[in-house]
Amino acid sequence: MVSAEDRIVVAPGNGNGCWSYIGKVGGEQTMLLGSGCELVSIAAHEIGHALGFFHTMSRHDRDSHVSINMYNIRPDWRSQYNRETTDTNHNYGLPYDMGSIMHYGMTSSSVNMQPSIVPHNRKHQRTMGSPFISFIDLSMINEHYNCKALCNRRTSVKCERGGFPHPRDCRRCICPGGYAGTRCTERPKGCGRTVNATEEWKTLNDTLGVWWTEREEYSICHYWIKVG
Fold it and tell me: What is the pLDDT of residues 147-170, one digit of tens each?
């Protein structure tokens, strides 16, 4: 249960460091965002902890997806890579997510700039350490707090591409990356376009971002490449 007194207090701390309890402690709960923690992605990561997320590379099934090189990790950071058990970690049947906001990067907390995390599929090396909240993050947090149950499966919109009805408006879907629209059947608006694949190489040019601002701002382009 959550009472009116339960709240998260964001504090700047007395120096460097970002830190949060994992899950609800009860009452006034502190989350530290010290020097170096001003990025939106870092704040989102710590809020993920406060909402109940462990690090993704601490999932009980992580050894099926990544290898952890403890010798390359700073001694004071090794506890961040402890593997949870099936008793402490429930993932609601959702797949291991290299692109989760809760997943460290390949050389995070490395003592020698050598990999601290090695994905079994080497193509995922640059996927880890994403600054974005992933679709699986959204799906899992909605499972964890039973928000998906707010939408009646019989009367809610039928989502495509693995999307799910939005708990605050069951007539539209929350969609995985690259999809949009009421039922996740459309390309997201904005930068990008739909192109047809050819046997010859093509160059796609787009301009994105605002070069004169120092704000932490992201622009995303979505291309749909069709065959045939």
Answer: 999 999 999 999 999 999 999 999
Q: Is 4's pLDDT higher than 70?
A: no
Set 46, 143, 160, 217: catalytic member: 46
Is residue 144 part of an annotated ligand binding site? no
Digit-coded pLDDT (tens) for 86-104:
999 999 999 999 999 999 9
| 49 annotated among ligand-binding-site residues | yes
Cα end-to-end distance, the chain, whole Å: 54
Domains contained in the chain, CATH given? 1-52 (no CATH), 57-145 (3.40.390.10)
Q: Is 55 annotated as a binding residue?
A: yes
Q: What is the dihedral of CA 40, 140, 104, 20, to 10 degrees?
A: 60
State yes or no: is 5 an active-site residue.
Answer: no
Q: Tell how far CA 83 is from the center of its chain.
A: 19
Please check the confidence at residue 184 and state whether its pLDDT lies above 80. yes
Q: Can you tell me the mean pLDDT for 60-84?
A: 97
